[in-house]
């Protein structure tokens, strides 16, 4: 009994020790959720009570850490259960990040068509898991080509995707909208039910925030 009590006490203390993240300010979620120039990359029910919009850069180490350590747990716990809709929006800080986003946006078998969320999210996940391989490589194109071939691209479809000026313009426009309209100036930035939060969040912190909104 004593051991059980100690475990319960420890769990309660651990929960209490998880602090709510501090908001950077308010955003109008009705405006945030209006469509942009690119189709929304969203997972989860459209009528989920909690909306999370993440602005991120593919070369951002903190973004990679979030997706490699937190995202899958949040998806299983909240997105798959219908409590959260999770949306990714592009906020590239450099040309290599923009190129990675373009590859995630392209349909690998037909690069003139855009990918679906079912194609986009696994590509983003793969690129984040391998970020150290391609993001700082001396030959960025060769490194991204190698990564893209794992997702079904050929050298031809890879080149067609990355020379799509319209797509590049739309990726950059997505970033500009985030910066101008919603005050995004760092990655990752999360817009969650009317509040803006900057920086990586561990599972416990984001879970506590989501639970407070349910």
TrEMBL record:
Belongs to the thioredoxin family. DsbA subfamily. Gene3D superfamilies: Glutaredoxin. This is Disulfide bond formation protein D. InterPro entries: Thioredoxin-like_fold, Thioredoxin-like_sf, Thioredoxin_domain. Residues 8-214 form the Thioredoxin domain. PROSITE patterns: THIOREDOXIN_2. Signal peptide: none annotated.
């Amino acid at each position: 009994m004593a051991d059980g009590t100690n475990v319960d006490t420890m769990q309660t203390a651990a929960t209490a020790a998880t602090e709510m993240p501090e908001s950077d300010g308010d955003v109008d979620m009705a405006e945030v959720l209006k469509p942009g120039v690119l189709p929304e990359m969203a997972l989860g029910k459209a009528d989920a009570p909690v909306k999370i919009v993440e602005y991120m850069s593919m070369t951002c180490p903190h973004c990679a850490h979030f997706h490699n350590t937190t995202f899958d747990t949040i998806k299983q716990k909240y997105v798959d259960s219908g409590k959260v809709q999770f949306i990714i929006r592009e906020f590239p800080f450099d040309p290599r990040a923009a190129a990675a986003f373009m590859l995630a946006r392209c349909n690998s078998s037909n690069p003139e068509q855009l990918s679906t969320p079912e194609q986009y999210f696994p590509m983003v996940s793969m690129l984040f898991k391998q970020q150290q391989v391609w993001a700082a490589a001396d030959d960025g194109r060769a490194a991204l080509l190698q990564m893209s071939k794992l997702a079904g691209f050929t050298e031809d479809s890879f080149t067609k995707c990355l020379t799509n000026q319209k797509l590049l313009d739309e990726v950059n426009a997505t970033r500009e909208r985030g910066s101008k309209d919603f005050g995004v100036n760092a990655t990752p930035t999360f817009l969650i039910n009317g509040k803006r939060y900057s920086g990586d969040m561990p599972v416990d912190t984001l879970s506590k925030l989501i639970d407070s909104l349910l």
